[in-house]
């Protein structure tokens, strides 16, 4: 057996000796272990320590010295960049801020406390160069959110916005996790619809752009619009499922460029069947808010800290106070009394029956200790046709509720839905909508149950927990009036 093995080794050695030098190096390369490809988040945590690894990403800083070259490389997986240490012989004029590189070397412990692990580079391959003169972001400069907003196609390269996008991704996961854990069924409601759920008329109409389309001819045979809410479709589903939700884009054709408005934004909406209590809805709103916020704080600590330190200093205290306290409840009438007694001068007048403005909402939040507050039982005439009539109230109100939060104002809006066929039919007739919503009346004719639901603006949620003032800074590609850069 050993003799046979020895013969085999001898043959292999003899064969190798007869090969050309190029072929021999080819065999050696084939036999070498392929470097483990690591994300930066894995490398900075010490994964594959001591091993030959490959890291791909973009240069965040360059520091050449006489004998060594120091790079910080980031691939979007972590706020923290990986320090790359290389011989000065590997330096190259194209190794600049923003350049894409592929670095191969050994991951080792760093002698510096701030950077526990670093990559000792054997090879640096420049995948894509970047002209640092033309690149709008500069090394060692902290750019404001207002500045980077000018470059929607490039701002994901900055620390602040890459942190925002990781937080947004994790918050999305948190919302889905909450509903899954609480037995809600996700429904994909349509983006194109014939319904104007809010009744405000701020709709984007949808028509084909084909020049062959005859003037006046409708593609869907009826007017069609981009959705302003998935609520009515959720109400359809609530006739077969006791708990449903949707999470997707919604659109408002509001001609505004304010820091509060977007033409396209994301909504979390839920519908609960077999309920006649606003408390059932406020419990879901509050629990979802707490669950999603705690999840983000736990899974994106570094990214959230960036905002709480540099964008909204001290906001972490506000978030902690929100999570420690139960959310108080005011009726609309109580809210009006508080506003009337205030010494603050408001731009919009206060009277019973007025629609609460952002300035009113923010004042109510501060009055309640700068924590989220529910306002219930709004005047009936302020709410859409589907809101349940509070017939037993001395004032004509609807079983509606808003959740107001610090720095934002209204975050969630919801109501019990009018399940009584005669009352709903009368209100639709009064509004001239009975034919348009005949299908909605059918929902009350066939196995209807008391139900209710709400919607939460996802971007406003992110503003609330991060302390971001402008809604355009919490969405990847903001769409608003007179602006569509890409």
Largest sheet: 9 strands, mixed
Number of strands: 17
Q: Helix count?
A: 14
- Low-confidence stretches are 1-29
Q: What global shape is seen? A: elongated
What structural class should be given to the helix and strand makeup? alpha+beta
- Average pLDDT for all residues: 90
* Share in helix: 25-40%
Q: Whole-number radius of gyration?
A: 30 Å
Distance between the termini: 71 Å
Strand content: 15-25%
Describe this structure in words.
33% of the residues lie in helices and 23% in strands. With 486 residues, it is α+β, with helices and mostly antiparallel strands. The strands form three sheets. Strands 7, 10, 11, 12, 13, 14, 15, 16 and 17 form a nine-stranded mixed β-sheet that branches. Strands 2-3-4-6-5 form a five-stranded mixed barrel. Helix 3 links the parallel strand 1 and strand 2. The N terminus is likely disordered.
């Amino acid at each position: 057996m050993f003799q046979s093995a020895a013969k085999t080794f001898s043959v292999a050695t003899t064969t190798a000796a007869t090969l050309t030098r190029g072929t021999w190096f080819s065999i050696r390369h084939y036999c070498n272990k392929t470097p483990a490809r690591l994300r930066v988040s894995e490398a900075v945590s010490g994964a594959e320590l001591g091993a030959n690894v490959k890291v791909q990403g973009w240069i965040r800083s360059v520091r050449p010295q006489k004998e060594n070259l120091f790079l910080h490389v980031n691939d979007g997986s972590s706020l923290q960049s990986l320090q790359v240490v290389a011989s000065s012989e590997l330096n190259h004029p194209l190794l600049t801020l923003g350049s894409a590189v592929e670095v191969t070397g050994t991951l080792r412990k760093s002698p510096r406390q701030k950077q526990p692990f670093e990559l000792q580079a054997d090879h640096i391959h420049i995948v894509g160069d970047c002209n640092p003169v033309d690149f709008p972001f500069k090394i060692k400069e902290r750019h404001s959110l207002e500045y980077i907003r000018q470059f929607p196609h490039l701002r994901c390269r900055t620390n602040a916005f890459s942190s925002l996008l990781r937080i947004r991704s994790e918050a999305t996961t948190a919302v889905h996790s909450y509903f899954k854990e609480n037995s809600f069924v996700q429904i994909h409601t349509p983006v194109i619809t014939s319904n104007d759920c809010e009744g405000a008329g701020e709709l984007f109409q949808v028509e084909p752009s084909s020049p062959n389309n005859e003037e006046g001819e409708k593609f869907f045979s009826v007017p069609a619009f981009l959705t302003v809410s998935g609520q009515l479709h959720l109400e359809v589903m609530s006739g077969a499922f006791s708990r449903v939700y949707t999470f997707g884009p919604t659109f408002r054709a509001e001609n505004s460029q304010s820091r509060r408005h977007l033409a396209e934004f994301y909504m979390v909406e839920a519908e609960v069947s077999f309920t006649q209590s606003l408390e059932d809805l406020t419990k879901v709103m509050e629990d979802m808010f707490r669950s999603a916020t705690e999840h983000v704080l736990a899974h994106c600590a570094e990214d959230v800290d960036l905002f709480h330190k540099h964008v909204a200093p001290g906001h972490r205290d506000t978030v902690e106070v929100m999570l420690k306290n139960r959310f108080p409840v005011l009726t609309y009438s109580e809210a009006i009394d508080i506003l009337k007694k205030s010494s603050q001068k408001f731009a919009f007048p206060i009277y019973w029956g007025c629609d609460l403005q952002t300035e009113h909402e923010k004042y109510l939040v501060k009055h309640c200790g700068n924590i989220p507050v529910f306002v219930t039982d709004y005047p009936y005439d302020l709410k859409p046709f589907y809101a349940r009539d509070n017939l037993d109230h001395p004032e004509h109100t609807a079983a509606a509720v808003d959740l107001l939060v610090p720095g934002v104002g209204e975050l969630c809006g919801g109501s019990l839905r009018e399940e009584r066929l005669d009352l709903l039919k009368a209100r639709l007739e009064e509004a001239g909508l009975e034919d348009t919503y005949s299908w909605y009346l059918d929902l009350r004719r066939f196995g209807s149950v008391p139900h209710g639901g709400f919607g939460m603006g996802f971007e406003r949620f992110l503003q609330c927990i991060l302390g971001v003032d402008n809604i355009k800074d919490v969405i990847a590609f903001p769409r608003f009036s007179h602006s569509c850069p890409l």
